[in-house]
Amino acid sequence: xxxxxxxxxxxxxxxxxxxxxxxxxxxxxxxxxxxxxxxxxxxxxxxxxxxxxxxxxxxxxxxxxxxxxxxxxxxxxxxxxxxxxxxxxxxxxxxxxxxxxxxxxxxxxxxxxxxxxxxxxxxxxxxxxxxxxxxxxxxxxxxxxxxxxxxxxxxxxxxxxxxxxxxxxxxxxxxxxxxxxxxxxxxxxxxxxxxxxxxxxxxxxxxxxxxxxxxxxxxxxxxxxxxxxxxxxxxxxxxxxxxxxxxxxxxxxxxxxxxxxxxx
Length: 264
What we know:
The protein is an all-alpha fold.
């Protein structure tokens, strides 16, 4: 049943995502065409095209992962806390799960914010790299005329190395995030199962082995969706950075604007 509902959810979201993407693409394309010739001549088109492309994709990713994954995971977690406190009558287990849940989310938030600078650096290097390649190839005749191929290649490779350096730091920070998340999951599982085992040994509240297994299953239910929280939050942060780059383009004002009452 969960798989069926998940697939139905994905199918229903496809139309929503496509509509949102189309609106962002249309707004961006229309706005860029409305800008002045002077802006187009001064702006580096390789940079602009990459910012537009990433920004459009980011808007879709932000909505998809924020609405389809993150919101249901939080609701499921809250429901499980209530279940432990009310149905199992184990406030201690509910408190441990709540602390583990909050610690997991907080650590993910802190580490991912720290990782944000690596993404921004990668974006900057990526824009510069594509701008260099586009500018060099468009001005191929000029480069050839001055025998400047070696210089252009060295500059391009330098930008590629900067991008790769940012990618290495980003991947290393992902490993740190995964280790931190796994630690909180294991500590939460250890704490809840220790309380459940104590209740069984001391016959506390008639706690049975079946309920011990149920506690383990419910704890896994809380943290299984959260296993993707780091990736989802990273995607959301990356999307916000990409959207900010797109927003800078959309903030540009045309030199000449038609009045609302103007006739086509």
